[in-house]
Amino acid sequence: MKKTISTIFGLAAISLATLTTSCSSDDNKTEGPKSDFVVVRENLQGEIKSGEVILESGTYKLTGKLIVSNTAKLTIKPGVTIQATTVAKDKLEEVRYIAVAQGGQIDVQGTASSPVIMTSELQEPGAWGGLVLCGKARINKGTTAQAEVSNLTYGGTEDGDSSGSIKYLRIEYPGFSYSNTKEFNGLSFFGVGKGTTIDYVQVYESSDDGFEWFGGTVDAKHLVVSNKGDLLGDDLFDWTEGWIGNGENWYGIKTNAGNRGIEADNNSDNHKATPISFPNLKNITLIGTTTSIQGEAQGVKLRVGTKGKLDNVVLKGWATGFDVQHDESISYVGTDLLATNVKFEDVGVKAKGTATAVGGSTDVTKLFTEKADATGAGNGSGVPNWAAGWTKGL
Predict the structure, then answer these.
(1) How far is CA 21 from CA 14, 18, 52, in A?
(2) Could you tell me whether strands 337-345 and 308-316 are parallel, antiparallel, or unpaired per DSSP bridges?
(3) How far is 256 from 240, CA to CA, in rounded Å?
(4) pLDDT under 50 in the chain at which residues?
């Protein structure tokens, strides 16, 4: 009899333990090493110092900066929304953003039917800081440097470094401004390595650049930038500091008086600094306007020593298609600075060149070859089929 009662109480204890576990919150459930970081849906902020944190479903309120530190990992499941709460413009220390430090990892697991969304309560450009990745690949600003808006270290010698994987992500209303010269972008790549996966990402209504590369070797496919609001954006795409990755299937559109489709630099302090920016891009559509608040309504601006090869490009609506500046970049025209199979639609001047000397106009027509039926990002100047379903406002 005693044995039977003991058995019954034992079974009851097991059942109670199972019930308690099954009813517990899964907001901080991890598939990898356990993290001490505590997820609070209404107050997501702080530093993930180790282990893996998983955001499972629903909406999380970003109430400050969220840093993924060395050895830590942030995994975001399909359909999750991260919403930055509103911060006063004079409270710079409270700006909301997400940053992955060197050695950290992010795994955005969105799908075409259920993308991950990073947005803000205040639905206007410049409402929050966006997403920052800092890797260990080479840059030409020094062996390492400090990211301009997070002060995290980036750069190094590990060109194959991985900051994780991002698929089917939409970033809305980023571009928080510290000053006239210091602003967040939508998605910033600081020395990010080629082991990182970037595929199917949209930046929607950013007050600064949509995507910007600061050196590194990361490749990026299926990118969308759309700026149609009255509040001005800057460039749709931007690279500097020696980016040598690949890009494929980019679609960018602006209907306001923002700036360029692509702004391409090597190093403004030393035009010959190595590694020299030299991305290879294909299947690109850039749609703009003939006006810009800075007077630079250019489809592609190539300057301060950048190289680059672009193929299958559609430029529509720009005052100038290609604008090449400075002797170093001009010297690469037709060889290491080349755009093949280009279609111009409603573009005022197809290409112009300006040498370093003031007023030094020069011929850069060898920069491009034309193709009347170029498809660009997939549908000429139309919205590409691959952007359907997971993007916004196209």
Answers:
(1) 11, 5, 20
(2) parallel
(3) 24
(4) 1-30
